[in-house]
Amino acid sequence: MAKLIINADSQKGTIDRNIYGHFSEHLGRCIYEGIWVGLDSPIPNTEGMRNDVIEALKKLQIPVLRWPGGCFADEYHWKDGVGPAEKRKRMINTHWGGVLENNHFGTHEFLRLCELIEAEPYISGNVGSGTVAEMSEWVEYMTFDGESPMANWRQENGREKPWKLTYFGVGNENWGCGGDMRPEYYADLYRRYACYVRNYGDNRIFKIACGANSADYNWTEVLMREAAKYMDGLSLHYYTIPTGNWKDKGSATDFGELEWFQTLEKTLFMDELITRHDTIMTKYDPEKRVALIVDEWGTWFNVEPGTNPGFLYQQNTMRDALVAGINLNIFHKHSDRVRMANIAQVVNVLQSVILTEGADMLLTPTYHVFDMYKVHQGASLISTHAESPSYEMNGKKIDQLSVSASLDTANQLHISLCNLHHSDHLEVNCDVRGRTVRSVTGRILTSDNIQSHNTFDEPETVKLMDFTNYRFENDQLIVTLPAKSVVTLRLS
User: In the Cβ-directed half-sphere of 190, how many Cα atoms lie within 13 Å?
Assistant: First the structure.
């Protein structure tokens, strides 16, 4: 049995709702087919964007959406994607499959998508192959309300008033696909580019610098030392790869118990990563003004057999659901520093919440975790202490239980619990202090086997269900979690 103390009267700050952000890149079938089908498509759409996807994303209450990349951002020239569609320049997407990009989905379309799903936009600017002037003019185009060449051009292209834009990334993965830069060089370059990302009128830009690749702590040290006062956020990218081998990451669906365990073990490394990067950031920013932005995270497996290897299309199982729950719990824990995270990616790419095939759409297990966990958005983090049994395999141990709790603005207490074990159930003795619990309601996501996933033939193999497997004993709440499950409870 696991023991869980929930100090309902001990609040530890706010869980920023932007932790529940998503990421949309011009990669594979994420934008084209996944979101954008065009004005003439027989698939029901609003201004070229598919209605089923819009409705599903809106239901998740997505707070922020990142675009256009990713690696694509540092080869994207925004002026090619505005104006009449038939006149927009075509380009080759050299990073992702060498396919033709017709630029029909550009600035206006993305910002309209954000309006439709009620999410804030997070734009990634081009440092790798772009110019300072190009980046500066993009911000002017989007946010300036007055007489200027870019504002006038925006109006000519059909948008009279500027958009509200808060989040702007000055480059992406500039240590790799964004220019193969040294941290010292990028820090200076960031300062130069960020200087021209201007605030117009009452619009205020939250400037995000390119941060480290996984455990590159030197990158964080250099960026904080040389440029902390010029940034509002610093990014971090970490992908869960069960094999640890980028050339053979393992199958998304054909895996055994050992690969299950290895995947969860590696995703738990996110806790150490955040702790160590936070320690370096606190050396230069003890007040934690600069946010850590985990704007790329999630599972990365081999692509589905028979699909374009440059499209990164993979299936999504109950294993992915546990990865999502674990990471969200970790982000909650570090909410004093982590104030945005963006799972990669929203549709048809990597650990997506939605898959599409022609006119059909399905929701993945990861979608259901985000749906269940949305009650934590903007809520107050509640202090918890857990004593968990160990989950052991191949000489290694991890905690069987992952948990977090929050109190929302309506004074509702929510607890999310993940049982990581592939075959063993887990009883959790919940000692709720500072609050009397009279009723419990909950939802659960679980499956018959570790490989369970939703297909277009069987789209509800893994779905949310009501959870009732709890009881009260001597004023203690006893919750029984099935193997491989994610549960969220509301305690009243």
Answer: 36
Calpha distance 352→453 (Å, rounded): 13
- Asked if 183 contacts 222 with a C-beta cutoff of 8 angstroms, the reply is yes
Number of residues that this document lists for the chain: 492
Active-site residue, 259 included: no
* 365-373 helix and 318-333 helix, angle to the nearest 10 degrees: 30
Q: Quick check: bond before 68 cis, omega within 30?
A: yes
- DSSP-assigned letters across all residues of 120-149: EEEEEE--SS--HHHHHHHHHHHH--SSSH
CA atoms of 60 and 54, how far apart (whole Å): 10
Torsion angles phi and psi, residue 284, rounded to 5: -105, -15
Instruction: State the Cα–Cα distance between residues 186 and 193, nearest whole angstrom.
Output: 10
Q: CA 34, CA 1: separation in Å to the nearest integer?
A: 43
Burial 306-340 (b: 16+ CB within 10 A, else e): eeeebbbbbbbbbbbbbbbbbbbbbbbbbbbbbbb
Q: 3-state SS of the chain: helix, strand, coil percent to 5? A: 30, 30, 40
Report how far Cα 320 is from the mean position of its chain's Cα atoms: 13
Per the residue annotation, which of 25, 109, 173, 265 is the catalytic one? 173
Query: Are 359 and 46 a contacting pair, CB within 8 Å?
Result: no
Mean pLDDT, the chain, whole residue set: 97
Asked whether 301 and 314 are in contact (CB, 8 A), the reply is: yes
Closest residue by Cα to residue 370 from 51, 31, 27, 58: 58
pLDDT in tens, 104-130: 999 999 999 999 999 999 999 999 999
Question: In sequence order, which residues have a C-beta less than 8 Å from that of residue 143 and are 6 or more positions away?
Answer: 162, 163, 164, 165, 199, 200, 201, 203, 205
Cβ-based neighbours of 154, under 8 Å, separated by 6 or more: 82, 141, 142, 162
User: In the 8-state DSSP scheme, what is residue 286?
Assistant: T
Residues 6+ apart with CB under 8 A from 74: 126, 127, 128, 129, 130, 171, 172, 173, 174, 177, 178, 179
- pLDDT tens digit sequence for 273-293: 999 999 999 999 999 999 999
Q: Would you tell me how many other CB atoms lie within 10 Å of the CB of residue 90?
A: 10
Contact call for residues 232 and 206 (beta carbons, < 8 A): yes
Task: Establish whether 296 is a catalytic residue.
Answer: yes
43, 359 contact by CB (below 8 A): yes
Chain position carrying tokens 């659960």: 444
The residue annotated as part of the active site, out of 184, 296, 357, 392, is 296
